[in-house]
Amino acid sequence: MTASTPPTPPFRDSRLPFAKRIDDLLSRLTLQEKISFLHQFAPAVERLGVGAFRTGQEALHGVAWMGPATVFPQAVGLGATWNEDLVRRVGEAVSQEVRAMRARDERIGLNVWAPTVNLLRHPLWGRNEEGYSEDPRLTSAVATAYTRGLRGDHPVYWRTAPVLKHWLAHNNETGRDVTSSSVRPRVLHEYDLRAFRDTVEAGAVAGVMPAYNLVNGHPNHVSPYLREQLRAWTEQELLVCSDAGAPSNLVDSEHYFDTHEEATAASLTAGVDSFTDHGTDGSKIVERVTGAYERGLLTEADIDAAVRRQLSVRFRLGEFDPEYDPHAGTGAFDTPAHRALAREAAEQAVVLLRNDGVLPLAADTRIAVVGLLADECKLDWYSGTLIHRSTPLDGLYERFGAERVEFAEGVDRVRLRTAAGTFLTVPDAPGSATGARGAEGALDPALLAGRTDLPPLAAGPEGTEFALVDWGGDVLTLRAPDGHYLSVAEDGFLRASAEQPGGWVVQETFRLEPHGDGHLLRHLGTGRHVRVAADGVKVADAADGDPEVFGLVVTERGAEAVARAAAAADVVVVVAGNDPHINGRETEDRATLRLPAHQERLLEAARTANPRTVLALVSAYPYAIEPEDLSAVLWTAHGGQAAGTALARVLAGDISPAGRLPQTWYADDADLPDLLDYDVIGARQTYLYFEGTPLFPFGHGLSYASFGYDGLAVRAGEESVRVSFTVTNTGEVTADEVAQLYARAVDPSVTRPRRELLAHRRVTLEPGARTELSFEVPLSAFAFWDVARGGWRREPGAYELLAGASSEDVRLRTTVTLDGDAAAPRPVLRDGLAAVDFDEQSGAEIVDRTKAAGDAVTPAADGTAELLYRACDFGDGVTGVTLEVAGAGTVEVSPAGGPPVTLALGTPTPGPYAYTTLDAPFTAEGVHDLRIGLRGPLRLALVGFSGRGSGDG
After folding, report:
1. Contact 487, 457 (CB under 8 A)
2. Helix (H/G/I), strand (E/B), else coil: 904
């Protein structure tokens, strides 16, 4: 007799719906097995044949960290294309390479952590490169395109499972794990949530990642908005993956909870499903979840809910149906199509900001290409390792011929003389060349160590001439003649070992500090000074004695080399910008919009020597420059592997530039609000509210062609407004135009955007060609969040529609009258007031009412705050006011024009969440604005009124 074949368990039955299969698998897992699934690296369950699973594969603009892959332009560069079709194709290529790389390396995960949909509210944010735009609609349009490409088109099985980063209102690296973003309800709904919501509702998102910061006093990893907002937008199971180390931050740095068991339970019940903490070691999370369960802080149902969401993603990725997974055989990697797409994306990302006619360059032009980035193809923290590499110099050589191109990098060349009269020397190290940092791939590149197999620097009679670059803020790098940067490894010795500055803690940056007749050389990664010892040059600690005092011997000034090259050319192209690992990156915000002084000197030297100067900015963020004396200005984000070729083709006129700015370029630091001021309405931030004159406006970008706009037509329907107009190429070359449609409320009752992007389209037109563009704009696009009713409201009245080439270059305009809901007074007698629902504020900060949910308002740093609530209806009259407050201090309540009533907390409450009620006589009748002043460290949650008023209050 033969043994009977055991029946196929339901979770293996591909004929059943995923929900039933997940139910079955959950029922077979033990509690401890389910708990183990809550860590980023979920172990295998061999008795059930369930494999290990990893959440989180970085894929922001290509497969990152895991070795060679196609590198596309940075996300802000993809945003500058304003081209959803292109971005979708980039997402497809990235997801194909994820699948191809996984086929040979199981460390590659299919749950990709991309895209970033944080809005580029403030241009000094260190991670500006990771977002798409300051505008929520443009951000969501590009993010939706990328997620659709990452997901794939199969109706059942996903090629990869994208997770949106970073929920929510996250635009500062300074104190990012302890600062709270104060986001008033209008900004929350109209701005920060909108980009996430529109992308999630498009249906190609597997989950989100909470950010390190707090919002309105709640850490994002216990945010009530995960439940109240995110999970209400879709019936799909969304997987919420924590950011790295953030679960521990709830106790260790934020001190929001006393124990890790409490913090873990709160995160899990708030909606976090996968904990990224302690690297690949899941034991700590298992211990914390188990402890929380044993203390009654969690139920098995809470654990099941999180595991269910993870399993939902795994089933959609085809893990349990390998024979039916249409993506299992995907092998597209570094294909000709992917290389062509990388170049196309880089070309479409180039923005022409200014041009007096010098561009495009004629084929016989003698070109000087100069600047610190002229022969660089920089990568950022979320890049893969380059397979192909094209710098601006490479591209210009290829396009114009090396004989017509002169190069000057513009570095200062120096020797460092010791007090003994010797010089720092890089010893010979035959056969020492190796690949780039991280070329072999790493699950956590922050753990990659510097090389120790090379001899350290020494002191000698001749010395080595180093290329010194000051990147701003007195942060400099030193590069040896062989192209390697001085770096410090774990043993503390200096070696010429790094191909580029990089790493989580950059080990290739230094600072020269004046000291007597010379300079101390401080290594910024360790914070220690450099000393010369018998066994080599190293960073010193206190026990090592005095640091070395160096004399700086300059053998060539970079500005002089630039001037010589510029003077001999017909046109000089200055390539300036940033290194993505220095002065503006994850963990570090920028201090200024200005170009570093070193680069300003190079630009001035070029411009003085040759008035036909073109500035090509290659950067992760905007700069404040003075363009008036420049013949042309271009900007592109770091454009990936084809960046140099793309820039050269634009300069030559092989293609007409059509990138458009995805964020406002401000003229001066004085135009910027405080980095931590998230109130885009009150602080008049972004093109939506900025009342000054920008250096270059949102949506700006020039072309080698010209375009005419005409025939604006508008038809309002019951659910949408149909807008159409015609665009004509009136120039002499085939070119793309990005037509943009904006709206503004003509006579709003509250502060509304100066203009707001409704739609856009990038089109290609030959000379003389014309096309009619039509946009169906939902009426909901004209609504705002009405704090008086706690919901969306479209005001009846006139709305101006503006069509053109940027937010300021308006070619056509008309007005449409829409119906809607008229404003109504706040029924404060009936409903009271939530303190957070103010119309205007000064000096206030929104904080958590309780650790679980709710908002309160408190004075910010100076201890006073003013709140204004418009059109409060006191009916036939009120006689008393009641406040729900915590802390200590006084509250002043007054109807507009009336005397204030002061209520004081005589005895401070036991803590910030220990609320008490204060009552006082208060008289008002009819409709009035209400003013409330807060004095001292108190929290105001609710305001209520009592009296004889009408039924509506």
Report:
1. no
2. strand
How many beta carbons lie within 10 A of that of residue 911, not counting itself?
A: 9
pLDDT in tens, 729-756: 999 999 999 999 999 999 999 999 999 9
One-letter identity of residue 429: A
Taking the model in full, what pTM does it have? 0.97
Helix (H, G, I), strand (E, B) or coil at 83: coil
282: tokens are 């899941």
Radius of gyration for the alpha carbons in the chain, expressed in angstroms and rounded = 30
Helix-strand-coil split of the chain, %, nearest 5 = 25, 30, 45
Contact 313, 306 (CB under 8 A): no
Q: Is 249 in contact with 177 (CB distance < 8 Å)?
A: yes
Cα separation, 450 vs 506, in Å, equals 10
Q: What is the mean pLDDT of residues 322-348?
A: 95
Q: What is the 3-state secondary structure (H, E, C) of 636-651?
A: ECCCHHHHHHHHHHHH
Give the residue-averaged pLDDT of 827-850: 96
The residues assigned a catalytic role are: 243
Q: Do residues 874 and 926 touch, judged by C-beta distance below 8 A?
A: yes
Alpha-carbon dihedral 928, 933, 938, 939, rounded to 10 degrees: 30
Q: How many residues does the chain have?
A: 953
Residue 903's closest CA among 925, 883, 929, 887? 883
Give the Å distances, CA to CA, from 593 to 470, 703, 827: 16, 25, 46
Q: Is 7 exposed, middle or buried (0-12, 13-18, 19+ CB in 10 A)?
A: exposed
Q: How far does Cα 625 stand from its chain's mean position?
A: 23
Residues 353-394 pLDDT 10s: 999 999 999 999 999 999 999 999 999 999 999 999 999 999
Tell the residue number behind the tokens 């939530």, with chain if given: 834
> Distance of alpha carbon 97 from its chain centroid, rounded?
23
Measure the CA–CA gap between 661 and 949, rounded to whole angstroms: 53
Closest-CA residue to 94 (of 57, 126, 53): 57
The CA distance from 534 to 544, in Å, is 12
Q: Are strands 916-924 and 412-417 parallel, antiparallel or unpaired?
A: unpaired
- Residue 953: pLDDT band (50, 70, 90) is very low
Residue 214 near residue 179, CB atoms below 8 Å: yes
- Give me the residues paired with residue 636 across strands: 618
